[in-house]
Design brief:
The structure is a homodimer of 317-residue chains. Chain A has 317 residues and is an alpha/beta fold. The first copy, chain A, is built from ten helices and eleven strands. Chain A is elongated, with a radius of gyration of 21 Å. The interface between A and B is large, with 46 and 46 residues.
Chain lengths: 317, 317
């Protein structure tokens, strides 16, 4: 189990008022880490408020604690606690609010140590660190905290399938499973359940998928008409961007969403462990991303990107 | 951690020749439990042979130990060890081979205790029991055993998402993750990777899916022509049978594969926790199954099944 520095435990124990902050476009790990940490601190008698004034996925609306988000009553807090947030620029924080100490609890390798105090360990999810902190603080767990820790870890590991999973991740789950939560239904909600429109757009992305370059490149295009037939791009789920990666022969995949007529939102993916950096193409078109996942907006016909994808494949040979 | 009865540990320690047997149509849990148990017993100096003379999924062909399957050199063994096998009828066992003791290690609630000695506990996977046995025998683990235990548990739990997962399941994984295996790539192979043809048939099942009865029933039909366009029914992956279950409003789903002209292989699914027994329909058509999952062959048009599905929905109101 991960050891929490005494300084961090003391800081949480010795202070009384907390404002919790997460990153922009909060995901499952961010929302659920905030819920678990907030409820845990409240269980110790602390005053906890949340500044999480961003929309987030419907599937995450499963915590009673969300009712307390964005009800700030103070201008100054003892501790401004940043969760799952790697840089200050990426934080979603309130203006005109001050705090005595800025504390950062995060699991990103890229963390810039932008606070006053830090508990940063590269683990699968911020929720894994929050669990360690709650244990160190001897917080009595409840079902909502167990549900939140599960949600944080399950979403950030693709249901325990990503390379970030370690022995410690499963140790945390072994503890969490001691609470009477229907984790199976929760898993389905987080990972497999779709609306009819989401399912249909997923099917269209498969129908329109074609292979190129000796089956090593996949391209799928969802037209504007197809998007509109099923409620628009908002119904294209994250897994659509990965469809090509799930085909055994494919090394690079590109998914095009025609969000407006002749305007394409493109997701590029590269398969590990091939020596490919798809972000080079994304950056050329003013987008961004990482080695294996990048995105940008494209104003030409999808097939015009193919030579650039082929060049990446050829470059690795 | 699960306790293995001393009698079982003694039986394995005190005997020398073993023949390992699994159930018909062996799945990931069966194959991988056999590999882990076989390699573990060999590490203790035992003579182990395998009678697993059935075809199994390509994705499971990842163990060196498979090379030793079906090379029987004896007519009599000390122990005939049945793994993951709930009934003698369901076992795939060799004729004209005898054993001094029939030992059953299984995790099915429906186990009929058909052997001489039994280690039966209702846990997520037989692999979970095999791990407990190997620990009790103090077998030195290796990477292939770790990979096998992972495969057994990961496949039988739908990547840790089914209701059979417990704290103990994750405890086992916490141990298994201490070995240097690329579990993430293994997960992808077991759960998400498809061939192009498998992906296309998955997409067709979504394209042809329609909702009925206030969006509570889904029916998807894959025609014989569509099957043939992508290599036949062998390329329809298991997840196709569950597509309807993944839609938020659906309670009963039916997937029809037209395996020959006008002959449909039907998979029925019912969503938990609704009080529905889809096996009643399957049994009527000489098929079989459980409350939530059943199958049969249908010789009429798919739409002719709809009234019976609607009657199930109405019956629960």
């Amino acid at each position: 189990m991960i050891t929490v520095p005494k300084k961090i435990v003391d800081l949480l124990q010795e202070n009384q008022t907390f404002i919790l902050i997460v990153h922009q476009k909060p995901d499952g790990d961010a929302i659920a880490s905030a819920v678990a940490m907030g409820k845990g601190l409240k269980a110790l008698g602390k005053n906890v408020e949340y500044y999480i004034d961003s929309a987030f996925e419907e599937k995450l609306h499963i915590f009673d604690e969300i009712a307390f988000f964005n009800q700030l009553t103070q201008k100054h807090y003892d501790v401004m606690l940043f969760l799952d947030t790697s840089t200050f620029e990426y934080a979603f924080y309130p203006k005109n609010i001050t705090a005595t100490v800025k504390l950062v609890i995060d699991h990103h390798k890229s963390n810039t140590f932008f606070g006053d105090e830090h508990f940063v360990e590269v683990v699968a999810a911020c929720g894994e660190l929050v669990f360690a902190v709650l244990q160190a603080l001897k917080v009595p767990m409840d079902e909502e905290i167990a549900k939140a820790i599960f949600t944080a870890i399950s979403t950030d590991t693709g249901s325990f399938q990503f390379a970030n999973v370690t022995s410690n991740t499963h140790e945390v789950l072994a503890e969490i499973y001691k609470y009477p939560v229907d984790f199976s239904s929760l898993s389905k909600r987080l990972h497999t359940t779709k609306t009819f429109n989401q399912m249909k757009l997923f099917g269209i992305a498969i129908k329109n998928l074609n292979l190129f370059c000796h089956e090593r490149i996949s391209i799928s295009v969802i037209s504007n008409a197809e998007l509109n037939a099923y409620g628009g791009a908002v119904n294209v789920t994250d897994d659509v961007s990965n469809i090509g990666m799930n085909i055994d022969t494919v090394i690079i995949s590109a998914t095009f969403k025609e969000v407006e007529t002749a305007v394409y939102r493109v997701s590029l993916r590269g398969k590990s462990p091939y020596p490919i950096d798809v972000s080079t193409i994304a950056i050329k078109y003013s987008g961004g991303g990482h080695l294996r996942a990048a995105g940008f907006t494209f104003y030409k016909k999808p097939e015009e990107l193919l030579p650039e994808l082929e060049a990446l494949i050829e470059g690795m040979e």
